Amino acid sequence: MSESTTPPPRRSALANVWHPGDHGRIGFTGPQVTLRERRDITAIQLDAQRGTTDGVGKAVAAAFGLGLPGPGRATTTGDVRALWLGPDRWLLQTATPADLEPRLRSLTEGVGGVVVDQSHGRTILRIEGAKARDTLAKSTGIDLHPRAFAENAVAQTSLFQLAVTIDRRRGTSIFDVHAMRGFAVHLYEALLDAGGEYGVRLV
Amino acid sequence: MIRIPCPHCGPRDHAEFSYAGDATKIRPADPDAATAADWHDYVYFRDNPRGPHMEYWHHTQGCRAYVKVLRDTSTHEVLAAGMPGDTLEAGR
Question: In this structure, which topology does domain B3-82 adopt according to CATH?
Answer without folding.
Answer: Folate-binding fold (3.30.2270)
